[in-house]
Amino acid sequence: MIEKLLERFFRIPVYYPKITILFLVVVTIVLGLGLPKLEFENSLNGMMPKHDVEYLTNEKVKAVYGNNGKFIIIDVSSGNMMSRDTFIRTD
User: Is residue 20 a contact partner of residue 12, using CB atoms and an 8 Å limit?
Assistant: First the structure.
């Protein structure tokens, strides 16, 4: 029974390619109509649970150092990254 159903289902795109393409275009257009209304919340306040350890740590750091929204990226290269001199220069 299920084999016949699957055979009929997969036969549709083979024997009716224009209808299949038209169906996919219509579905794409209908689903695409909602794209202008799509919004993202990318702040920590909106995404993180208020009881999460990382969120609470971030709130403590903001209380101590302020929330300026900036961060620093350091690129260090050395022949021996694990040497004492490299750690002293990086510090």
Answer: yes
